[in-house]
Structure formats: C-alpha cells, structure tokens
Amino acid sequence: MAKIRKVAFQMDHISGINIAGDSTFAMALEAQSRGYELFHYTPDRLTMRDGKIFAAMEPLQVRDIKGDHFTLGERERIDLSMMDVVQLRQDPPFDMGYITSTHLLERVHPKTLVVNDPAWVRNSPEKIFVTEFADLMPATLISRDPTEIARFRDEMGDIILKPLYGNGGAGVFHSARDDRNFTSLLEMFGQMYRGEPYIAQAYLPAVRKGDKRILLVDGEPVGAINRVPAETDSRSNMHVGGRAEATEITAREKEICARIGPALRERGFIFVGIDVIGDYMTEINVTSPTGIREVRKFGGADVASLMWDAIEAKRA
C-alpha cells in the first residue's frame, strides 16, 4: 500500500478563510488528524522549470479555533512530485490562471494524486458539464446573443441569468417576462463578460423552499444541506445571505446521483457537490465544492473523513 505522508493544499491563502464554513479547512483538519504532513501554497506560486513542477510551500498546522486557526512554517521551494496528494482547492473564477494551473498539475498527476483530476476539472466547467444530463436539468440556454436570450425569456417567462464561469452567487439575476431592465441587464453582461457566453435557465419557483447542495464522494451521495434564500433575494448561496438547514436526500435526488455517479468516477472526481432545486439539477461543482462543515453541523456524515478514506483507497 502507498501510504499517504505528505499532502499539499493549493488554495486561496488560509489567512482569509472563514473556518466555520470552509470545506478545505475541514479537509486539512481531518488530514492532520490522520498524521499526514501538511503543506500550503497559493496558485501564483506554481512554477515549471524544465518540465518539473515546483511550488513555494509552507508547512501547515491547523486548529479549529476562530482567529487562531493556522500556523505556517518557513517557505521552501518543493518539487510537487515529492507530495503524495495535492488538493486543488482554490476558488474560481475559472479563468486562464485557473486553467493554466490545471495544465501544470497534470504533469505530476497521477503519481502525485491531484484531487480532483486536473485535466477533467479543466474540461468540466460546472455549468457546462451538467448539460451532459440535460433531461435532469431545467430548460437551459448558453449564449451571448441577445436575440436568443430574449426569445428564451419569452418562451420561459421568468428566467435566471448568470455568468457561465461565475461562482458564489455573484452576477446571478432573476428576470421576469415584464422586466423593463432586461435590455440594460444584457448590455451590462456584454460589458462585464466580453467574449464569454452567459447561461440562462428557466426560473424554478421551488427555489423559495431551498437550493439543495448534495455532496458525493467517489460518485456516491454522502450528505446534503438545504440553502434557503433570503426573503429579498433569489440566490441561496450562503456567501450572499442564504440560510443553511438540515435536510434529507430524496428518492429523486438519489436517482440523479445514480445517473451521474459513473461519469464522476470515470473522470476521477473524488469530491463533488451538485445543486438541486425541486426535481432538477442545476450545477455539478468539481473545482472547490463546499458544504462539508454544514453537513456535519446538522448531524450528517463526516464527509471529510469519507473523502480521505476514498483517497487512501486510490493510493492503495
């Protein structure tokens, strides 16, 4: 068995995280409890030299204490091939910097196991990968053509319009059929997201009851939370005021997970979060899914432990 000894976290700097809801922090706590040696670095510190991949890393210790949650050691340039596992955990945007980091990490994977598989992360943007399961989704349009988007809204009535490569609820708008700001909204999108298509989806009234985040480990559902939007907002993301609550995984949601599970395993996606509103899946999150700490808070599974069990099995 190839024992795990050294684990690196490629992430946004640990000083800026909110440990109460940060899944990367939960992963680090569990890894430390298993005796792994932890290292920390930000994506801008990745370097390729003559085909080898290095990063300026610090040894990392973590504590579940607000305001005193980490200690970093002295920074050192380390060959990533010396790591057993690299957790690819920086938040989007899914821009060229993000894409380049996946190309570099691909050079060390799978000898150094990168979670999730960097090539498939690059080829599976959350709002595009999900369209491979169109029958499980609400009506969806990907376009930047104002005529196409207007036609879609006329057909659907209320729609949700959002950037194709956004995250955390940023730039998400609910537009009704009689919205007089619609033309201005499209103009704003055109200026903000030059050259990129947008995604429009039929508005699902069931979102008022919540947008469920379901976590899957190696293609199997292991926990869920429901995220309820604020009264004055259409977005349920906790970053923008959504309220988390306990929930169960329904028969329909188990059916959705069973459908997508083989594709997740085929792509090497060990840890994934899907978003479900009512009976419909809206996203498959493979970059840096969240929800681990919230699931545990409401008495659910220890998802971080299950994830490291799966990683250890891959390394066996």
TrEMBL record:
The name of this protein is Glutathione synthetase
Q: Which InterPro entries match?
A: ATP-grasp, ATP_grasp_subdomain_1, Glut_synth_pro, GSHS_ATP-bd, GSHS_N, PreATP-grasp_dom_sf
Q: What class of enzyme is it?
A: ligase
Please state the pathway this protein functions in, per its UniProt record: Sulfur metabolism; glutathione biosynthesis; glutathione from L-cysteine and L-glutamate: step 2/2
Q: Which GO terms describe its molecular function?
A: ATP binding; glutathione synthase activity; metal ion binding
Species source reads Neorhizobium alkalisoli
Q: Tell me its EC number(s), please.
A: 6.3.2.3
- One Pfam short name: GSH-S_ATP
Q: Which domain of life is it from?
A: Bacteria
Give cofactor(s), names only: Mg(2+); Mn(2+)
Task: Describe the reaction catalysed, as an equation.
Answer: gamma-L-glutamyl-L-cysteine + glycine + ATP = glutathione + ADP + phosphate + H(+)
Q: Name one GO cellular component term.
A: cytoplasm
Similarity comment: family membership: Belongs to the prokaryotic GSH synthase family.
Its encoding gene is what? gshB
Q: Which PROSITE patterns match?
A: ATP_GRASP
What residue stretches are annotated with the ATP-grasp domain? 127-312
The record's keywords, sorted A to Z, are: ATP-binding, Glutathione biosynthesis, Ligase, Magnesium, Manganese, Metal-binding, Nucleotide-binding
